[in-house]
């Protein structure tokens, strides 16, 4: 195992030629057509430096070591400017080289083809997925990633095993602080969680946004497999009342938010109890978008300042939302409009839990004449043709709910299927969205 990185090995002293000129001449010289191909143009290296021999002069660094290597146009231009040619030593060190250049210099020849420096970032933490052949160099690779990315303080390598129940990756620290509690931003929300103990996948962020867009701010949303809340928290930020559940106590711990009611139980239990729970303990009514900080500040300023005729400024819904109207109060919220089920490996197998969920007297009263909730259920399929994927998924959903007919029948919206991403060459992740069939939710099932 190669464990230490010798940064001093990356020092280079390169003798070059430089043109000594007055400070006032440098601007024009840098722009001169004749000098275009002759001036030093390296990333992170300044083309003009103070002359170490006389700080009143400047040295314009040239890309050549000998005068004979200058182009004829450059030589003529320098002569006209009365520039004096002199030697200069360019000092490059570890900071100059890119991560790839450093690893190219360290790794053996047979490993130079691939790029082990690819990584994803969550908060301050970079996670790599190193192939076995790079493992003897993992600490050096980690150190280079750490050195070359200012935002990163911790570097981990994902191990090949995933926690089968809670779906998070096992990982090992390869550089930096052993601090796995990250603060990550997605959909204008801040998430704090222990990356080594919960599921998080930044590649799902468009899927999170896609579903949250479908929610109305007045909706009650039940997230059966909520994780640390990438659907739940943005939905609550929008105004939705959210019931967020996750069996992993570590996810539950971080599930917070004004309108997020968290629970930590098996998804099946959660589905069975959630409707009654929301009836027993309704959410406050939706009172309009929350005022932004600047709107609140402006409102306070107006309240404190001299009286202004009310017609001279506009009162927005947002600005009024902090003082709920005492005349027409919207109803409190207890009817669920959406179920979210992102546990693609097995979410479909939980669908039988919906059988008879609205059978109780109070649930019947609430849901019998109201629209049924939408169910958004994530799943995998090995059918890569869209039509075959749809057939495979809808059949599994119907079977699991004991539905004796095709999903999306009379009076129901069409079933929609959304391809979330391809997870392997022969495996796609989908989200199937459908309205919970009445005969399933009101089915008389034995307790
Ligand atoms: C694929 S993750 C999705 C998390 C989050 N919704 C997201 O989109 O990133 C699935 C989550 O389900 C939780 N989980 C696994 N089995 C569960 C069960 N039987 N009941 C409830 N939650 C479960 C895991 O802990 C994990 O956080």
Automatic annotation (TrEMBL):
<dbReference type="Pfam" id="PF25133">
    <property type="entry name" value="TYW2_N_2"/>
</dbReference>
<dbReference type="GO" id="GO:0052906">
    <property type="term" value="F:tRNA (guanine(37)-N1)-methyltransferase activity"/>
</dbReference>
<keyword id="KW-0949">S-adenosyl-L-methionine</keyword>
<dbReference type="InterPro" id="IPR056743">
    <property type="entry name" value="TRM5-TYW2-like_MTfase"/>
</dbReference>
<dbReference type="GO" id="GO:0002939">
    <property type="term" value="P:tRNA N1-guanine methylation"/>
</dbReference>
<dbReference type="GO" id="GO:0005759">
    <property type="term" value="C:mitochondrial matrix"/>
</dbReference>
<comment type="subunit">
    <text>Monomer.</text>
</comment>
<keyword id="KW-0496">Mitochondrion</keyword>
<feature type="binding site">
    <location>
        <position position="208"/>
    </location>
    <ligand>
        <name>S-adenosyl-L-methionine</name>
    </ligand>
</feature>
<feature type="binding site">
    <location>
        <position position="342"/>
    </location>
    <ligand>
        <name>S-adenosyl-L-methionine</name>
    </ligand>
</feature>
<keyword id="KW-0489">Methyltransferase</keyword>
<keyword id="KW-0539">Nucleus</keyword>
<keyword id="KW-0963">Cytoplasm</keyword>
<dbReference type="InterPro" id="IPR025792">
    <property type="entry name" value="tRNA_Gua_MeTrfase_euk"/>
</dbReference>
<keyword id="KW-0808">Transferase</keyword>
<dbReference type="Pfam" id="PF02475">
    <property type="entry name" value="TRM5-TYW2_MTfase"/>
</dbReference>
<dbReference type="GO" id="GO:0005634">
    <property type="term" value="C:nucleus"/>
</dbReference>
<feature type="binding site">
    <location>
        <begin position="246"/>
        <end position="247"/>
    </location>
    <ligand>
        <name>S-adenosyl-L-methionine</name>
    </ligand>
</feature>
<feature type="binding site">
    <location>
        <begin position="266"/>
        <end position="267"/>
    </location>
    <ligand>
        <name>S-adenosyl-L-methionine</name>
    </ligand>
</feature>
<feature type="region of interest" description="Disordered">
    <location>
        <begin position="285"/>
        <end position="309"/>
    </location>
</feature>
<dbReference type="InterPro" id="IPR056744">
    <property type="entry name" value="TRM5/TYW2-like_N"/>
</dbReference>
<dbReference type="InterPro" id="IPR030382">
    <property type="entry name" value="MeTrfase_TRM5/TYW2"/>
</dbReference>
<comment type="function">
    <text>Specifically methylates the N1 position of guanosine-37 in various cytoplasmic and mitochondrial tRNAs. Methylation is not dependent on the nature of the nucleoside 5' of the target nucleoside. This is the first step in the biosynthesis of wybutosine (yW), a modified base adjacent to the anticodon of tRNAs and required for accurate decoding.</text>
</comment>
<keyword id="KW-0819">tRNA processing</keyword>
<feature type="domain" description="SAM-dependent methyltransferase TRM5/TYW2-type">
    <location>
        <begin position="119"/>
        <end position="438"/>
    </location>
</feature>
<dbReference type="InterPro" id="IPR029063">
    <property type="entry name" value="SAM-dependent_MTases_sf"/>
</dbReference>
<protein>
    <recommendedName>
        <fullName>tRNA (guanine(37)-N1)-methyltransferase</fullName>
        <ecNumber>2.1.1.228</ecNumber>
    </recommendedName>
</protein>
<comment type="similarity">
    <text>Belongs to the TRM5 / TYW2 family.</text>
</comment>
<comment type="similarity">
    <text>Belongs to the class I-like SAM-binding methyltransferase superfamily. TRM5/TYW2 family.</text>
</comment>
<dbReference type="GO" id="GO:0070901">
    <property type="term" value="P:mitochondrial tRNA methylation"/>
</dbReference>
